[in-house]
Amino acid sequence: MSLKPRVTSLSRPVNLSGQTALVIGATAGIGAALARQLAEMGATTIIVGRDPTKLDQMRGALEAIAPGRIHTQLADLADLASVEQAARALRAYGRLDIVVSNASIRTSGATRSFTKDGFESSFGVNHLGNAAFLLALEAPLRAAPAGRVVIMASEAHRRAKALPMDDLMGERNFDGALAYNRSKLANILFARQLAGRWAGLTVYAVHPGGVLTNMMTAPAGRSALSRLIFFLVRPLLLTPAEAAKGIMRIAADPQLAEPSGAYFELGRPSRPGKLADDQGLARQLYEKTIDLLTKAGFSSIGGPAASTSFPA
Questions:
Q1: Among 88, 149, 244, 301, which one has the highest count of C-beta atoms within 10 angstroms of its own C-beta?
Q2: Shortest CA distance to 125 belongs to which of 213, 66, 184, 174?
Q3: Which residues are designated catalytic?
Q4: Are 251 and 34 spatial neighbours (Cβ–Cβ below 8 Å)?
């Protein structure tokens, strides 16, 4: 059975002229498809990536459909100094109506790798890098009439088992798949904390579905079992453009009635796993995130419009 009929797209055309949209991780896969659809809907679209060549190529492709409305920004989420520099440049746009936090990596095996700041790569990029970016963009989001954030999560969060605050870097019995699952759980927990702390803004976490992207295909050749699994599930996978249609509704539909902090799966509201509903765990993660970023020298948290309290 195909997953394709389960994707919910915009029920009516939406004109995003006059709005500015930012896609973090926009040079391939779902991010590239989202950037194209945002540009087609009239938004001034800023694409963020770590490869200048790919950014230039993507900009050229989008300029053909949205001349004068495409901008690029270099940023490497594995390097907090790069994130800080990029956020500083992006704040110069004054306002951001839509921010899609899409950048992600997937590791495998039992050997840890690390970001430039010394964090385990999955947690460091998928959670800390994206979280730092969003925290640094609060002011331009607040400058928009109805700022909206979409954080790309995954149903993999249901396999996280736990999110131990004393071992977020996987020092005990590291497993790449588990590290990825935990980073996706962190995405949802962080989205829910932002929703509570950022009154007046809307923050959603989204599982796009099983999508035929580079992240999905890369592990396919590593073992006979993984090749077999990929062969069996490939007919069920969405194209990036199909997945982007479901996400576009969440990012841009002014009629969307779900409250800030909601979780979506394949374009529709869904109840996440039990751990993702743990508000105590979410608060611990948020506080730990701020602590880790601050100790790493990241100073662009909040801004003139930053929140100072969180409801009990």
A1: 244
A2: 184
A3: 180
A4: yes
Tokens in use for 118?
Answer: 């010394």
Please say if the pLDDT value at position 227 is more than 70. no
DSSP state letters, 157-173: GGG-----TT-TT--SS
Is 217 a residue whose pLDDT tops 60? no
Sole residue written with tokens 């035929």:
212
Q: Are 192 and 279 in contact (CB under 8 A)?
A: yes
How far apart are alpha carbons 280 and 290 in whole angstroms? 16
Alpha-carbon gap, residue 250 to 280, rounded angstroms: 26
Q: What is the Cα–Cα distance from 202 to 214, expressed in whole angstroms?
A: 29
Where do we find the tokens 């790569």? Answer: 121
Q: Which residue has the tokens 């896969």?
A: 29
Strand partners, 238: 211
Q: What percent of the chain has pLDDT over 90?
A: 76
Confidence of residue 131 (pLDDT cuts 50, 70, 90): very high
List C-alpha distances in Å: 296 to 88, 191, 308: 17, 22, 22
Residue 217 or residue 19, greater confidence: 19
Question: In the numeric block, which tokens belong to residue 131?
Answer: 């979280």
Beta bridge partners of 148: 98, 202
Euclidean distance between CA atoms 84 and 95, whole angstroms: 17
Q: Give the pLDDT confidence of 134-156 residue by residue, as tens digits.
A: 999 999 999 999 999 999 999 99
For position 228, what pLDDT does the model report?
Answer: 55
Residue 269 to residue 252: CA distance in whole angstroms: 15
The conformation of residue 114, written as its DSSP 8-state character, comes to: B
Name the DSSP letter for residue 123. Answer: I
Q: What share of the chain is helix, strand, coil (3-state, %, to 5)?
A: 45, 15, 40
> What's phi and psi for 128, nearest 5 deg?
-65, -40
Bridging pattern class, strands 44-49 and 148-152: unpaired
Angle formed at CA 254 by CA 45 and CA 272, multiple of 5 degrees = 90
